[in-house]
Amino acid sequence: MKDPAMEIAGLRRALRRHEHLYYVLDRPEITDAEYDALMRSLRELEELHPELASLDSPTGRVGGKPREGFVKVPHSSPMLSLDNALNEEELRAFDRRVAELLSGAGYRYVAELKMDGLSMAAVYRDGRFTLAVTRGDGQVGEDVTENARTIHSLPLQVEGGPAAFEVRGETVMNRRAFERLNLEREDKGLSRFANPRNAAAGSLRLLEPQLTAARRLDYYPYFFLVDGLPARESHWASLEEMARLGFKVNPHRRLCENVDQVLAYCAEWEARREQLPYEIDGVVVKVDSVGQQRQLGFTAKAPRWAIAYKYPARQAKTTVRAIEVQVGRTGALTPVALLEPKEVGGVTVSRATLHNEDEIARLGLEVGDEVVIERSGDVIPKVVRVSEQGSARKPFHMPAECPVCGGKVVREEGEAASRCINTNCPARLKESILHFASRGVMNIDGVGEALVDQLVDKGLAKGLADLYSLTLAELLGLERMGPRSAANILRNIVGSKSNPLPRVIAALGIRFVGERTAVFLAEAFGSLDAVAEASQEDLQRSEEVGPKVAESVYQFFREPHNRDLVERLRAAGLQFTFESTRPKGGALQGLTFVLTGTLPSLSRDQAKELIERAGGKVAGSLSGKTSYVVAGADAGSKLAKAQNLGVRILDETQLLSLIKAG
Ligand code: IVH
User: What does the pLDDT look like over 97-119, one tens digit per residue?
Assistant: First the structure.
């Protein structure tokens, strides 16, 4: 066997290289699945060899332990901000001042995009990332090291740099991550972040690094410092050096010979800013020579050798002609303002999102009002405020029925969004099916986005239950579907009928009812019918079910479309009854299992469930407490370790007979 230390080092090296290719250069060489497989091997090896753990391993990006607050840390030199130039004239005035102070010497500028995020310093010692600090008040910031560690484009290890150095740059959230985050927040009844900058700032300062990890931040450095001072004699050279060291330096930088070239750069990116995946609010212009920067010096709050050229806000006034309601993929009803078409920064805008009823109330908006609208990035334009009330204005009311399916619309206590609660509403259907089939729910392998899109668009699935009446011929008629995958999918769908009741309950997609609550409901009521018939008071007798969950469950089963769904699932043969699996001295009581590899018929989740039902425990890694390792195909390092430790190894059949024997 290979030396684990060498194997771990090799995997880390490979993963670092692929992270750089993917997150920094945007030029991956392997598929996501291959990347995941490498990561999995590394994680398994590290679990087996805790003595070889390292903070800067690529596995360390998932986010560490929650903390109570942030520690204040002083900066190595002040993190200043910039003066603004709001138009060409102001930029030319800045240039004249620079020329004057440099008394006739030649100089060049570096023009960079001004990314709209928040600035952060990252400190490296002996090639390792050791500290990250927010700008704070410029003198003292907050230690956000653990959160910054989750940013994939920030290298955790750097080769060939100075022994100690610091980079300063911008932490940003790109627009897609921002939109996704806001959709998730709406779905959870939380308020939206107003813009990606706020979202990035909020994410960097979360007390749970694991949450930051899920937020997908990006980091672009623009200063390279040693002992708090520029590391190279030219700013351009510093940028190039950071890129060479593996940092994600913004590629759209430009060395300019004079202010006209800078202005051309500004104009060019003002026209192209929509094409960028992140938001910019202007251009930062810096004198390139660090010697000249020193000569120019600082005012009280900003350098005299740099300026921010700010793009004008893209706002305009127009009239709200009507308010329409759209139904999103989670069933949320979103009011949209239909506007008198108006050009805003080169694009004609005729719709603007109003998010929800509360937002309309906050704006004090009624149909017929004149409003200020704003475009930021490719995010849907928004209404900023009412500039003048219309003479014949009409208030807006959320409809009581879904405009797509006619189903009932509900707005829960404390929630901003109103929702259509009909699971079969075409607007919601795709998302509902994906949830139904997902891992940990009905576990139907092969039912992913591409398939579900086709099923719904071609009318093969008009409701969740239609999954169970799909035929081989129908599947074969879909794009990119060979006979083998079609047969597999069909087999998986049929196989899912034996999932126990808690999974069926979780699969229905009742709001607030996840896998855990589903188990409690199944245990308390013993059948789906009993859950469906229960009053809100009865429901609350079940463990962990409070008024909010009880109401959601109760309402769900009062919606006729959902009752219909239940009947169709019953007809399809799903498990509607349940015997409590609370281990009462089960066959595997007191035994601890470790699962590894692929079992011939059970999925990992199914095996885990069987073991737990029989009173056993399932652990993630081998230890002295492990009673058995259950090994399937491609078992890998855990199997080898079990053999070394002399732990008994079972295959699937042996596991099943052990359970039966009890
Ligand atoms: S240089 C002392 N370069 O804009 C100079 N800043 O008001 C400090 N920003 O706080 C900044 N992109 O958050 C610089 N390429 C860039 C930038 C940039 C975005 C932000 C940064 C700074 C603010 C300047």
Answer: 999 999 989 999 999 999 999 99
Name the pLDDT band for 56 (thresholds 50, 70, 90). Answer: confident
Q: What is the distance between the alpha carbons of residues 434 and 467, in angstroms, rounded to a whole number?
A: 11
What is the Cα–Cα distance from 396 to 400, expressed in whole angstroms? 12
Predicted TM-score of the model (pTM): 0.61
With the most atoms of ligand 1 within 8 angstroms of its CB, the residue from 94, 195, 222 to mutate is 222
Of all protein residues, the one whose alpha carbon is nearest to atom 16 of ligand 1 is 114
For Cα atoms 630, 634, 640, give the angle at the middle one, nearest 5 degrees. 65
Helices (H), 149-208: 175-187, 196-204
Which residue would you say has higher pLDDT here, 236 or 348? 236
Residue nearest ligand 1's atom 2 by CA: 80
Q: Is 114 an active-site residue? A: yes
Q: Residues near ligand 1 with C-beta < 6 Å? A: 80-82, 112, 114-115, 119, 170, 222, 284, 303, 306, 308
Q: Give me the amino acid identity at 602.
A: L
The end-to-end CA distance of the chain, in Å, is 38
Mutation to probe ligand 1, out of 84, 110, 114 (largest number of atoms < 8 A from CB): 114
Give me the residues paired with residue 322 across strands. 338
Report the 10 Å Cβ neighbour count for 514.
14
Compute the distance from residue 170 Cα to the ligand 1 centre, in Å.
Answer: 7
CA gap 75, 318 in Å, rounded:
46
Contact status, residue 320 vs residue 373, Cβ threshold 8 Å: no
pLDDT above 60 for 584: no
Angle, helix 652-661 to helix 604-613, in steps of 10 degrees:
20
Q: How confident is the model at residue 486 (pLDDT cuts 50, 70, 90)?
A: very high
CA distances from 415 to 90, 203, 229, 550 (A): 47, 22, 50, 16
Closest CA to 441 of 521, 525, 501: 501
Residue ranges of domains in the chain, CATH in brackets: 4-60 (1.10.287.610), 84-310 (3.30.470.30), 314-388 (2.40.50.140), 592-661 (3.40.50.10190)
Q: Which two tokens stand for residue 652?
A: 């699937």
CA-to-CA distance for 56 and 127, rounded, in angstroms? 10
Cβ atoms of 596 and 630 closer than 8 Å: yes
pLDDT at 545 exceeding the cut of 90: no
Q: Return the minimum-mean-pLDDT range out of 182-191, 360-369, 532-541, 605-614.
A: 182-191
